[in-house]
Amino acid sequence: MLPFIVRRLLVSIPLLAVSSFLVFVLVANSGDPLQDLRVNPRIAPATIKAKERELHLDQPVITRYGIWVKDVVRGDFGTDNHGSSVRPQLWRALQVTLRLVVVALMVAVVVAVLVGVVSAIRQYSLFDYSSTFAAFLFFSLPVFWLAALLKEFAAIRVNNLFGRQLVFTIGQQSPDFHGGFFARLGDMAGHTVLPALTLILISFAQYSRYTRSSMLDVMSSDYVRTARAKGITSRRVIFNHALRNAMIPLATIVALDFGAVIGGAVVTEKVFGWHGMGTMLITGVTQFDVNLVQAWLMVTAVVVVLFNLLADIAYAYLDPRIRLG
Amino acid sequence: MADLETPAPVADEVVVPGGPVAGGGRGEFGVEARSQWRMVTRRFLRHRLAMASLVVLVLVILLSLVGGRVWKYDYTQITPEFSTGPSWGHPMGTDGPGHDTFAQVLRGAQKSVQIMLLVALFSTGIGVLIGAVAGYYRGKVDAVLMRAIDLLLTIPTLAILAVLSNKVRQSGSWFGIALIIAALVWTTIARIVRAEVLSVREKEFVEAARAAGANDWRIITRHLLPNVVGSIIVAATLTMAAAILIETTLSYLGLGIRVPDTSLGLLVSDGQSSAQTRPWLFYFPGLFIIIIVLCVNFIGDGLRDAFDPKQTRVRA
User: pLDDT-based confidence at B4, cuts 50/70/90?
Assistant: First the structure.
């Protein structure tokens, strides 16, 4: 096991290096970060020159990449175009995104497994058909439309229903909040409900389909028939024999998904005005801010690598027939 | 047990040795022989949901490609009735300045559908080529191509799309955006084709073809690809759904199609700002996206069932 993990991590280092270089070159060539300053006639050319030197814009891209690598190896992600340090921004964004993603994925998995199992056991029943249709529908919804729908219409209805503002539509928490620990927790929850619901509905669609199909596969396998023939109760067959094995592919997919989703539920964050990883990426990309994009890339790439590895390990752990080689 | 209940598709063809193959011919058992394609078509035709979706999708595509020319208003035209809800004159209402929303949705749908079709075409082409080459030649070629795909997957899709579309959107063409999306989504198809080619290339008939003197190109195009065409079609269909979602999302974020022109994503984004007062501006473009994607997904599902030889539910 250990040599496998070490080898996988070693293989991913050149991959990270190459992709960080490619993204660096891409972003550096995508536009001029000082565009706004240049078109402003009141800013002296000397100021712009100084700013260029500060951001190393006067040097070739290769040299700039070298500078970036040297800093990153020491744990310094540099500064953004406005001169503030990237590292604290990165941690803040990561915390915000984690809060959203962890809550959403956990709920989505639990609901999806329940729905998937029931619709596999009662195949072609009314429940199966309606959950299948729901899954297809949510799967086909554009995330931004669903998010905007919840934000513009659902939020107001809910708040009117309870006569006070329970769910919030902008930001990850109220900016000027005064209150105790629990009140603060409640405030955060109120902000998290809608964006989390958006993510839950979309990922629920995918996971419930996976659960259903792998559960169907397992239910028609020989060992389940053997278990039934031995006279084990349905409940035990389903939960102890079938579900355990049906969870294997789902575990992998969720692990892979988690890696991908840390990069930010870009659209969800954008609609609900959360300052998470997704917003950070968009800011970086639209303002041609190389250091922001690179910091984002490093965190997400490392998470993706780690979670892909975790998925493989989980697979081997859950299914002993698989050997990591 | 499924294989006992329904004859595997191959068995049917064996029934007619040398007789009038495939199609309407009758074999020695007096049973109509069916070619693989006819079985697939029949199974698909009997998949009611998929057929209904196909009809709706074709209608929507036709509407979006020619509707804009036929409809009485142009998408840039400003009508005197501004900010009105849906009515007979304006089935989807009008926006603040007085544009007819139906005309705008048609124009947006046209761009989105054009991009969707082009992406499906390009990404399938590249994906099949790279996947087949990697799967057929294996070894170093395979390793290099697959590492390249890994690399492409570590770089976040949205970052590339956003960065490149910064470049492209200056020209603002839907063609460029389609190319960018295609350059990113072909990896899925390449992986699927590679995996299938890897297994099919070991079959005896490939060896027979090689013994008969067929060259690599002929083996790939005549012997391998026809055997994986089912997976390719299903993957290509699902790529269309992905393509339109990516395109509308990009446009929504302001990184795709831009203002003088319009797209469904852009329309949703505009409509959202006035969702409280003129909700129709928000609902209709979104509804169009959902209908298209939902239909494509249902068709993909029906195709997957139709190509699945173990399929027993819809009897062929």
Answer: very low
Question: What CA–CA distance (Å, rounded) separates A96 from A104?
Answer: 13
Cβ-defined contact of A19 to B155 (cutoff 8 Å): yes
Digit-coded pLDDT (tens) for A147-180: 888 888 887 788 888 777 777 777 777 776 667 7
Cβ pair A285:B166 closer than 8 A: yes
Q: What is the dihedral of CA B7, B12, B17, B18, to 10 degrees?
A: -170
User: Which of B154, B159, B166 lies nearest to residue A31, judging by beta carbons?
Assistant: B166
Q: Does A22 touch chain B (CB under 8 A)?
A: yes
Phi, psi of B105 (to 5 degrees): -65, -40
Of A16, A143, A293, the CB nearest to B159: A293
What ipTM was reported for this prediction? 0.82
Nearest-CA distance from A27 to chain B in Å? 6
Residue A266 and residue B161: Cα distance in Å, rounded?
13
Q: What are the C-alpha distances in Å from B297 to residues A140, B43, B171, B300?
A: 7, 17, 32, 5
Matching residue, tokens 């470049």? B167
Question: How does pLDDT run across A133-151, given as a tens digit for each residue?
Answer: 899 899 888 888 998 888 8
Q: Do A152 and B162 touch (CB under 8 A)?
A: no
Q: φ, ψ for residue A42 (rounded to 5)?
A: -85, -5
For B78, left (φ over 0), alpha (ψ -120 to 50), or beta?
Answer: beta
A66 has a chain B CB within 8 A of its CB: no
Is the pTM for the entire model greater than 0.90? no
CB contact under 8 A, B290 and A142: yes
- A7 CB neighbour count, 10 Å cutoff: 12
Tell me the Ramachandran region of residue A173: left when phi exceeds 0, alpha when psi lies from -120 to 50, beta otherwise: beta
A22, A141, A282 ranked by CB distance to B290: nearest? A141
Name all contacts of A14-19 with Cβ < 8 Å and 24+ positions apart: A15/A305, A15/B147, A15/B150, A15/B151, A15/B154, A16/A298, A16/A301, A16/A302, A16/A305, A16/B154, A18/B151, A19/A297, A19/A301, A19/B151, A19/B154, A19/B155
A26 pLDDT band, cuts 50/70/90, is confident
The nearest CA of chain B is from the CA of A148 a distance in Å of 7
Q: Which residue of A has its CA nearest to B169?
A: A30
Single-letter code of the amino acid located at B161: L
